[in-house]
Amino acid sequence: MIIFKNVSKIYNDDFHAVDTIDLHIKEGEFIALIGPSGSGKSTTMKMINRLIEATSGTILIHGQDIGDQDPVLLRRNIGYVIQHIGLLPHMTIGKNIALVPKLKKWDKARCDKRVDELLEMVGLPAKEYKNRFPAELSGGQQQRVGVIRALAGDPPIVLMDEPFSALDPISREQLQDELLNLQTKIRKTIVFVTHDIDEAIKLADRIGIMQDGKLIQFDTPEQILRHPVNEFVRTFFGADRMNQVESLPTIEEVMIRPISSFPKRGLAESLIKMRKYKIDSLLVVDRSETFLGVAGVGEIQKNFSNENMVLEDVMKKEVPTVRLSQQLDDAINLISENQVAFLPVLDESHKLKGLITRASLVDVMANQLRSNNNEAAPVGGEGL
Ligand code: ADP
């Protein structure tokens, strides 16, 4: 979608504000650029809409070199939000939002519809807000308008340069939540510059970390937290966050002993076993403990009248499982993505080693929270 090939921005002959960057941003991806002040984040971002021209290298959007495109037309298809949004003070909110659609020569009905729909999306009812002037809105509301104005012409790409950094912490959190919500609906390709690490972790699919004009690491927040490429990234992200991640328990620590049975067991005896252990599914394994599938109480009951049937006839073979070598958050993701109550834990040779259930996870998380809170509690604060 957006590709940087060997892109540099050089000032005064030899100062590399951006130094030979390669970057590949996928369609619909939310990218945050983060790094110390002066590391080249804004410059990198502004080269995408040619507010700053690259000194060397190539930037492609949808396979086309932006250097060959008319910058004005290019910008019409790239939304742009900055810290002080710069709504035009003498124009109503509605007119401010409709600026780009009008430039794109949308007819009035389409413009009106778009303005109303966007205002509603960020919780500003059109009837109430459309005809107000910017000065009649709070900072947070103005910034919301700034965000939707950038979306108004339905650009595939939106650039956001520290859009929330002038807001108070509560409005800021709210706008971040709204932006995430909005992004699930509109799936734009977003490049977001921030110096707030928590903001980047919360919002971005991938984070690019910059230092002295170089892109030091570009990866998911998860991977950066787990595998910072160097000491700079580790300290920049903060040792606290790393420790929190590193202290997540392992799958082995969380898993419980599964109740299993063999494929040729009959349905009646299986039901009795399930009742005894108060469980609603049996994990089916062969004699060498290799995992074969899961037999649920519903399936067993449905086929109960057929006396010839055994567990292997009713078990489900395609069920999500997790490897012992995976991380606990992989297990959490699998459980929530697949909407299952439990995950069998297998070793590399597919043998059943344990079971992670929603309940066992809740216990672990509760303990974790408790111990984190205890660490954070002021001395002498207990027992109050
Ligand atoms: P960031 O967004 O990470 O704070 P910038 O991209 O704004 O950093 O700037 C990167 C570097 O380029 C900084 O050292 C800045 O001072 C320098 N720089 C930016 N614009 C110019 C300019 N017009 N002339 C000279 N140096 C500049």
TrEMBL record:
It is found in: Cell inner membrane. Keywords: ATP-binding, CBS domain, Cell inner membrane, Cell membrane, Membrane, Nucleotide-binding, Repeat, Transport. It is a peripheral membrane protein. The keyword Nucleotide-binding applies. GO terms for biological process: amino acid transport; glycine betaine transport. Pfam families: ABC_tran, CBS. The keyword Glycosyltransferase does not apply. Gene3D superfamilies: CBS-domain, P-loop containing nucleotide triphosphate hydrolases. Its EC number is 7.6.2.9. GO terms for molecular function: ABC-type quaternary ammonium compound transporting activity; ATP binding; ATP hydrolysis activity. Residues 315-371 form the CBS domain. Residues 2-237 form the ABC transporter domain. Its main location: membrane. It catalyses: a quaternary ammonium(out) + ATP + H2O = a quaternary ammonium(in) + ADP + phosphate + H(+). One of its GO terms (cellular component) is plasma membrane. It is an enzyme of class 7 (translocase). The complex is probably composed of two ATP-binding proteins, two transmembrane proteins and a solute-binding protein. NCBIfam families: proV. PANTHER family: OSMOPROTECTANT IMPORT ATP-BINDING PROTEIN OSMV. Belongs to the ABC transporter superfamily. This is Quaternary amine transport ATP-binding protein. It comes from Pelosinus fermentans B4. The lineage of its organism: Bacteria, Bacillati, Bacillota, Negativicutes, Selenomonadales.
